[in-house]
Amino acid sequence: ALGKGSDLEKTFATAALVYNNSADPEGKLSKAETKNLLQTQFQGFIQGQENKPKYQEIISALDEESENKIDFEDFMILLVSLTLMSDLLQEIKNVKTTK
User: What does 36-88 look like in DSSP terms, one character per residue?
Assistant: First the structure.
């Protein structure tokens, strides 16, 4: 859909596509499905974060009240939260690109 879009547009389109491919017909994910999706599709950002209190808080929330479902907006908030706390983000910040 965004073949000629910017890198940032393609990134968000990909996130939406991955979410939509996993979501139920109502466009939502169970908390267990959300946790599995994060662990399989976002592992580079969450790897090594297991001992951080914020990470534990996020994962614990996904383990509780499993009947509640996650919509796309909440999923994106989770992605941003996990990205901001990730050690990988610091590594990315340290990379110098040349054009």
Answer: HHHHHHSHHHHTT-TTSHHHHHHHHHHHS-TTSEE-HHHHHHHHHHHHHH-HH
